[in-house]
């Protein structure tokens, strides 16, 4: 237990915290802090929404602290608790030595440690062990409480991750094969409780056209299935550290070279698992005691049913689907090794048993030490190569950037410039939505938008995006921000492999300096959604075949009358009114608009290489999205008179 806790809790900020993890935390924060009560969870990889149990579970620590680190520690402790549960279950039904071996292998396994630290919508081994422990208690020990506990834990497993529906046929087969020991009254009570637990999800689905149920059926039966051994291969890989080097991304070869050369031990462990499955099959059919046959039968159902269900599907299976198998692989190996020791004792006596036991213990310690080394090496790569690995930027760096912004902001608002205009749209915005929860903040697409709120001060976080030399990167927007005398650069948060989170303190007293160099539109152009086009910046000449940048400045007089999404457009027209170039992009979310906002929007017009030289008109407008309805320009008394604003004339010349 101590080993499991140490491996799962040490350096808790060096965990994956990408879009999936941040989504779970952000939605759970709403449950813990804002009273949200969702009936569905996050979408699964095959399109169906999960049940919301993961969100409610993660909300428990976030009730105490909104910091995502609280959720990381809570999930790690919960998953570490699966190790003593593994020991208890194996010891009760299969023996103490088997339990020690299984728990040790489970505690040090790199894949188990990696997944145990993820705030993720995945089946948790503690709940899996409760389910099978309850089944074994009901079937083998004839404990009537096992039936309702099995039903409730099965509902919890499905609620945590939809892949756990593979346990439903296991439960059905267990009932069918063990009809003689069913306590129907206890079973009925358990089924009723399980139905009550999952009913909000299915009531929601029924009132929304059964979208999730139909999507799940399409995944299981839609299209022509392709047979694949991937499911069985993944089940074996998860019992060892095989494939873990892939988490180092492009450094996978270097990772293998820098790790002690014990990789062949994975093959040994796979061989032991194959022998253990064979031994379990023999015991399930030939063991003299009925209880032993039933015990091994359940272990085999646990291993083979999820694998069999994923061997012929219309879309490829995924490695993480088989986390639900933990820790049956280690239990099977432990049982096999204990059986071998028992045979040795019977054949050669206690002295041989003690020698074999010490040899086995030494080999396990060596193996465990190497597995721990692999885990620690992977964390070193997360630290040294945070933006290039298969794991994404760890929580450590994004949390440090968020905390620096919070310290600088005080009570002021934080503007996050990233690749999206709101949470759940992209990774960076979702991560910072979770990290800044409870503090005033807004999101803008930093490639196109520079936002200055009407407030005494504000802090801007600029997340690392495309390379600086890319014309569609965030650099031109940041350069415009940096040259304002009202803006102070704060110490950046630099990642070891290059990317930088830049922080800026904006003082609103002189924010109109951002308009320096722009051509102001006389009296501004007022639109029906309370936006005023104030001015623009564009070169007088443009070269055919090149990218032509345009800056558009706009004010927001009031919050918009509706919460529609709005897109802005800048176009280039010839004398006949034909559009030859156009760039549209979304404004930031309308529900985030505040009266007094000053915004600079950047547009990049791709001029056709065959665009004839001559005079053209630059025009700008906006429309609601997704209905593509133009927003009218209106007079001061509210009368519409146009669908946009003419910015000025430019001359297109031929390339040299």
Protein architecture, described:
With 656 residues, this protein is an alpha+beta fold. It has 3 domains: 20-216 and 229-384, no CATH class; 402-512, D-Maltodextrin-Binding Protein, domain 2 (3-Layer(aba) Sandwich); 517-653, Coagulation Factor XIII, Chain A, domain 1 (Distorted Sandwich), CATH 2.70.50. Helices cover 46% and strands 19% of the residues. The strands form 5 sheets. Strands 11, 13, 14, 16, 17 and 20 form a 6-stranded mixed beta sheet that branches. A 5-stranded mixed beta sheet has the order 4-3-6-8-7, with helices on both faces. A 5-stranded antiparallel beta sheet has the order 5-15-12-10-9, covered by helices on one side. A hairpin with a 4-residue loop joins strand 9 and strand 10. Helix 5 (82-94) packs parallel to helix 8 (125-139). The mean pLDDT is 90.
Compact overview of the structure:
The protein is about 45% helix and about 20% strand. The protein has about 650 residues and is α+β, with helices and mostly antiparallel strands. Strands 11, 13, 14, 16, 17 and 20 form a six-stranded mixed beta sheet that branches. A five-stranded mixed beta sheet has the order 4-3-6-8-7, sandwiched between helices.
């Amino acid at each position: 237990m101590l080993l499991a806790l140490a491996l799962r809790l040490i350096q808790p900020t060096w965990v994956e915290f990408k879009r999936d993890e941040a989504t779970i935390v952000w939605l759970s924060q709403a449950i813990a802090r804002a009273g949200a009560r969702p009936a569905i969870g996050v979408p699964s990889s095959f399109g169906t929404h999960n049940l919301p149990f993961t969100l409610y579970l993660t909300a428990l620590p976030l009730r105490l602290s909104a910091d995502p680190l609280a959720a990381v520690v809570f999930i790690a402790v919960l998953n570490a608790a699966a190790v003593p549960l593994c020991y208890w279950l194996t010891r009760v039904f299969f023996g103490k030595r088997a339990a020690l071996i299984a728990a040790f292998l489970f505690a040090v396994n790199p894949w188990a440690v990696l997944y145990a630290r993820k705030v993720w919508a995945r089946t948790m081994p503690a709940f899996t062990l409760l389910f099978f422990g309850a089944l074994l208690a009901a079937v083998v020990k004839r404990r009537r409480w096992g039936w309702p506990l099995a039903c409730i834990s099965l509902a919890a497993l499905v609620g945590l991750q939809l892949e756990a529906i593979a346990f439903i046929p296991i439960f059905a087969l267990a009932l069918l094969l063990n009809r003689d020991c069913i306590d129907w009254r206890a079973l009925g009570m358990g089924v009723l409780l399980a139905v009550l637990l999952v009913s909000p999800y299915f009531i929601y689905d029924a009132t929304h056209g059964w979208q999730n149920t139909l999507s799940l059926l399409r995944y299981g039966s839609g299209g022509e299935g392709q047979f694949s051994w991937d499911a069985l291969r993944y089940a074996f890989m998860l019992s060892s550290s095989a494939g873990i080097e892939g988490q180092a991304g492009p450094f996978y070869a270097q990772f293998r070279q820098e790790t002690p050369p014990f990789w062949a031990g994975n093959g040994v462990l796979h061989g032991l698992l194959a022998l253990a499955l064979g031994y379990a099959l023999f015991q399930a059919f030939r063991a003299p005691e009925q209880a032993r046959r039933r015990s091994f039968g359940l272990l085999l159902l646990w291993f083979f049913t999820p694998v069999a269900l994923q061997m012929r599907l219309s879309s490829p299976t995924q490695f993480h689907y088989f986390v639900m198998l933990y820790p049956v692989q280690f239990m099977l190996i432990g049982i096999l090794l204990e059986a071998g020791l028992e045979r040795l004792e019977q054949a050669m006596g206690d002295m041989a048993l003690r020698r074999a036991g010490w040899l086995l213990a030494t080999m396990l310690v060596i193996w465990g030490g190497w597995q721990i080394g692999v885990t620690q090496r992977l964390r070193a790569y997360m630290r040294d190569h945070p933006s290039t690995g298969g794991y994404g930027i760890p929580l450590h760096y994004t949390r440090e950037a968020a905390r620096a912004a919070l310290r600088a902001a005080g009570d002021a608002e934080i503007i996050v410039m990233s690749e999206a205009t709101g949470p759940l749209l992209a990774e960076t915005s979702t991560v910072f939505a979770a990290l800044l929860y409870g503090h005033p903040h807004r999101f803008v697409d930093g490639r196109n938008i520079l936002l200055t709120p009407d407030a005494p001060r504000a802090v801007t976080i600029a997340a690392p995006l495309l390379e600086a030399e890319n014309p569609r990167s965030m650099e031109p927007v940041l350069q415009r921000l940096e040259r304002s005398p009202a803006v102070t650069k704060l110490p950046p948060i630099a990642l070891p492999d290059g990317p930088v989170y830049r922080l800026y303190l904006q003082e609103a007293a002189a924010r109109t300096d951002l308009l320096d160099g722009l051509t102001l539109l006389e009296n501004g152009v007022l639109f029906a959604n309370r936006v005023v086009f104030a001015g623009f910046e564009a070169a007088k000449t443009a070269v055919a075949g090149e990218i032509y940048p345009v800056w558009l400045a706009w004010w927001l007089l009031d919050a918009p009358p509706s919460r529609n999404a709005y897109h802005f457009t800048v176009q280039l027209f010839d004398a006949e009114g034909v559009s030859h170039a156009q760039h549209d992009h979304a404004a930031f979310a309308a529900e985030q608009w505040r009266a007094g906002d000053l915004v600079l929007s950047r547009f990049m017009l791709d001029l056709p290489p065959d665009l004839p030289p001559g005079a053209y008109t630059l025009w700008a407008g906006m429309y609601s999205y997704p209905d593509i309805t133009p927003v009218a320009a209106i007079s001061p008394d509210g009368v519409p008179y146009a669908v946009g604003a003419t910015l000025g004339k430019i001359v297109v010349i031929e390339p040299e």
